[in-house]
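User: I'm preparing a small set of examples for a lab meeting where we compare how different chains pack in three dimensions. I only have the primary sequence for this one, and I'd like the structure in token form so I can line it up with the others. Please keep the answer compact; I'll paste it straight into my notes.
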Amino acid sequence: MKNDVLADDLLEGVAAISVYTGMKPRRVFYLAEAGKLPLFKIGNKWCARKSTLVTFITALEGGNEVA
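Assistant: Understood. Below is the structure token output for the 67-residue chain.
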């Protein structure tokens, strides 16, 4: 995988995730801490892949159980 592809898919920080999802930053942080969003930490910063978030939300829309 080329680094520029990963960089295009990576969201760094609650603010970036908030803008991408349209959720308020506090809600993103709450869902992240509760393990209800597919986020991960790099150091102390919450991060996400755009592609993973899209897959996760699409599964929720379809009524599929998400692990």
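A couple of notes for your slides: The beta strands are 10-12, 40-42, 45-49. The radius of gyration is 12 Å.

User: Perfect, thanks.
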